[in-house]
Amino acid sequence: MAEAIVAAYDGSAAARRAVDHALALAKARGAPLVVAHVLEWSPYSFLTPEEIAERHKRRSEEITRAQSAVLAPLVAELSGRGIEVETVIRYGHVAETLCEIASEHGAGQIVIGRTGHSTLASRIFGSVAGSLAQMAPVPCTIVP
């Protein structure tokens, strides 16, 4: 079987174009598609045990919500297209986490949209696409 293709998906139109491109690549290569959704999460080291428990609860709720609201509809739409589709939801720095997912799945390529749901911080400190292009362990395709 061909190396997996990882596609980053955040529900945006740009991310959907990236998934469509990754799907076409995966079909042409007979490769599995891994659709990854990364939730930014900043670790705080000075939390009380109660605050840590509350954050853990919120984190679980966010993962459940992302699975049902973001990834499940996409997977339902992609089913029946003759390609193996797996989903992954993680917390962390988006570019770093996508690199980890690619390595874990033995991916040969990462595909992302040029713009997704972004924050002011990403505009100031750099985009996910820019960071990923510099640090990815495999080739990256940035879909306009």
Account of the protein in words:
- It contains five helices and five strands.
- With 144 residues, it is of the alpha/beta class.
- It has one domain (5-117, 137-143): HUPs (Rossmann fold, 3-Layer(aba) Sandwich), CATH 3.40.50.
- It is globular and about 50 Å long.
Q: Give the uncertain stretches in residue-range form.
A: none
Succession of helices and strands: EHEHEHEHHE
Looking at CATH, the homologous superfamily is HUPs
Global mean pLDDT: 86
Which SSEs are present, and which pair or pack?
Layout: E1 5-8, H1 13-29, E2 33-39, H2 49-78, E3 85-91, H3 94-104, E4 109-113, H4 120-125, H5 128-135, E5 140-143
Parallel strand pairs: 1-2, 1-4, 2-3, 4-5
Helix pairs in contact: 3-5
